[in-house]
Structure formats: C-alpha cells, structure tokens
C-alpha cells in the first residue's frame, strides 16, 4: 500500500510544526510541511493523500489554493484550518470541495486527527473497492465467461470487441440460458466504463406499476409512501452501464417514456421538476423476437430502432456443435474445484449422449446436468449412465412443438441434423440414410 | 525542571501542559518552544512596523498569525487582547487604542520569551 502522505500548508512555523508533530505521532503517516502556497503547489505533483491547508497564507488565499488542488486532482481531500470563525467563508470553501473546515482552537489537533483517520479508512475502502472491481473485471474477461471454439462463438467474440470499443447501445438476443447477462457483464467490465457501476434490471420481474419509479427514481412526497428521495437505476448507473434484461416485456406506456429518456439523455424523477442528465450506457436483452413484436403492435417501432444498436444474437447451444463438450468439461471442472472433488473426465459414450441432446435450457441446463452427473459418477470418469436429461424425450422436443404433417416433420428433422453437424450435408445425409441430393433440393426450394 | 514537573500548573504567563500533551516528549517540547521563541518575535516586529505605518490590514494579519501560537502556549492574558485586532474591521474599531494594545502584547510576549529562554536554556 502507498504511504499515507499528509501535506501541512501553514505559514505560522510554530502552528505548522505543532500540526506536523502531532500528525507524525501516527507512524503510518508521512508528513510534509510548506509555508507558502507557491511552495506547496510546486510539490503538488507528489500527489498527497490529504492536505491540511491554512486559509490565510502570505502569498495566496486558501480559496485559490483549494481551487488549484481541485483542478489538479478533485479526489484529494483538503481540510481547511483557519483562525477565523467566519461561517460565510466556511460555506464557500465547502462548496468549492473542501473536505472540512476547522477553526484553530484547543480541539483542532484532535479534529484533524479524527478527520485523517476517517479519510484513511475511506481511502482504504476505496482501494479495496478498486481491487474488487479489478477482480470482477478479470472474472468477466470474455474468454473466461464465454467458452467455445465454434464459428458462431468466434463471431460473438468479434461483436463483443466492437461493443467494448464504442458506446453504442447493444441489443442481446437469444434463448433462455444462452448467457445474455454474461455478455452484458463482459461488455461492461472490459470497457472503459468498467470502473463505474453495472446496474442490471429484469423488466419482467418488476410489476409494471413500479417500473417507472425503479428506472427514473422519485422525489420525497411524490406519492404515498415516498418518504425519501430515491434514485432510479439510470442515476445509480452513473457513468457505468444499465442493463435492461427482458426489455421486450415492457408495456407500451413505459416504452414511450424510455424512448424519451434515450433520445434526450435526461430524465425527471417522479414528482420532480429538475432534469437529471443520463450518462449511463444502455445494454438491452430479450428472448423475444422484437421485430415480430413490432409487427404485432406489442413493441414501439421507434424504440425498436433506438434499441437495436449493435445486435448480438447468441446461438442456442444445440447449434454450437463441439462447444457442448467444451462447456461440459468446463462446468465439470468448475464444480469439482468448488467442491474439492478430484477432476473427472467425460467418457466417449457420455460425450455422444451430450451431443445428441437439444438443450432447451441451453448452457444453464447443461451446467445443472453436468453438476448432477459429477455427483452421480462414482469413478473418475463420467459415463453416459451418469447423465440424465430433465425429460427422457427432450432431445426430440423440437418435433413436439406443434402437430405437423409428415413433410413438415421431415423438414424439421433434416434442419435439426444440419444445425447439429454445422450444415455438413454429406454427414447429415449419411446419418439420416438419405441422398445428398434430397437435402440440396429442399434447400434450393427453400424448404429448409 | 524536568518533563513531569512542567506538566504542573505554574504562576508563569504561559502554560505548557497542552503543548506537552501534543508533542509527548522533552525533545519535541524543546523543539516547539524554540520555534515559538524564534518565529514569534519576527511577527511581533512586523506588527510594530505596521503600527507605525498604520497598515491596518497587515496589523490584523500579524495578530491573526500570532493568535494560534498564543492559544497553544496558553498565554491567557493575551487571549482576549489579540482578538481585538485579528481582523481589519476590529483594528479599525480599536484604532484609538492600537498603541496600547500592541504595546501590551509586546511586553507580555517579551516576558514570555525571557522566561522560556531561561527555562529551556535557549
């Protein structure tokens, strides 16, 4: 940890020495004393942790020195120590960003001592927060959270890179369990906004009567029960990121209000009159097809275009081929590590079983499956008998969505196998024991 | 006089107990007293010069500067006197008594300096 540097700026040599002596009683503090404003400003590059500043210096006023400090680094706390009990001066200095204002009297040294203690605690906590943020950032490096080598996933990586380097709104779509929230976190924590808050809100989880106050906040007395002012999620996110999950569930009235905020980049809290600037980046996700919802009249077209930004579509797990095995291994290893179990391998039969399933719950379902399989396996190898799907016929779910004609079922089966084997027509034809030309013909006729 | 006996109240114009409480040891006390004895006369000289030129603003500045040290040394006889001239508007209010006020401060401080020099062999 860096030393806690305290600069004492005091032109009275006796008082300055007294402060230096007193503060130095704490061996963790490194104290430097300056008798003029110019001398102090000349040494400001040393970036002190805190400054004790006499208000009346011979060459500059305390206010001028304070302004210079705040220009250099607004985060450095400045404690003003003055011989004057002048309330108006104190108010001006506090408005200019002084940490506190102490009048020189018998208790000054104790007040400074306590202030330094509090500032140091605050600095420690801020440092801890920075470390934690860094750790979260590392956790959400997208190579760490999105596993796979399939062309689909490589394409997603490329899109995330583009999202990170700009402030464009990103709309993430994909079936449940495909990792939309993880992509949002990866974008936030790997972008320059990563040090600011990441606020996620699931629109579908909040009653529609409350969503406005959740997003925009409210003033005290805005409605019955509004006993204090509450900041909304837009404000909480500050210069960070606001992730609106399941945005397709938002009702039309609220959509209009959201559109206005996104266009104007400012909002008014419920019951408030002042405009609040919106600086957060917006990421949205949905498992609905918003274009279809626009057609049906359930989603505003103008908001749709506003939110579209950079679309990232997360493919379902069943279309990601061997990524299933990479993820299965990753989830197994992770579970073993968390539970202090020796690592297990996955047998050939188990791998084949895993590849033959359709995963309606996507990666989330695979994770739960592999955790259960790890527990059920009595040997260092997970076998096919250890793996159980939530429904024995789930792999054929796609056939049971709705009743269909024989031709329709044929189409679905061939499409399913094409997805599964990365559109390898020869392989699919062989697996289904049909001619390649049948598949080519169906493709040509747009039947697939 | 040793460090402990200094902590007892005496009939001198100053009282070092607060300073002792802050610095905590004899070396620190010696250093602080030395600074006081060396730096305060310079401000006192400035104050006298400013009195001669009727520079009220600087008189207030000098008094303001000495105030904290006087309080720290617990020179109680100067506590209220120094506050009569620690702001330009107060200096103007007490314009007619300025010579007496500054004279009293000087006499008192000279006595304090002499006692301190003796006590600390300066």
Task: Write a structural description.
The complex is a heterodimer of chains A (448) and B (122). A five-stranded parallel beta sheet of chain A has the order 2-1-3-4-5, sandwiched between helices. Chain A has a five-stranded parallel beta sheet with strand order 7-10-13-6-14. A two-stranded antiparallel ribbon of chain A has the order 8-9. Chain A has four domains: 4-131, Rossmann fold (3-Layer(aba) Sandwich); 146-314, Rossmann fold, CATH 3.40.50; 317-395, Helicase, Ruva Protein, domain 3; 402-444. Chain A has helices spanning 13-23, 37-42, 62-72, 87-95, 108-139, 142-145, 151-164, 180-190, 208-216, 233-237, 252-264, 290-296, 301-308, 323-338, 348-355, 362-376, 397-400, 406-420, 425-432, 436-444, and strands at residues 4-9, 29-34, 50-54, 78-82, 100-103, 170-174, 198-202, 217-218, 230-231, 241-245, 266-268, 275-277, 281-286, 310-314, 345-346, 381-382. Chain A has 448 residues and is of the alpha/beta class. The mean pLDDT of chain A is 88. With 122 residues, chain B is mostly helical. Chain B has one domain (12-119): Up-down Bundle (Four Helix Bundle (Hemerythrin (Met), subunit A)). Chain B is 74% helix and 0% strand. Chain B is built from seven helices and no strands. The model of chain B has no long low-confidence stretch (mean pLDDT 89).
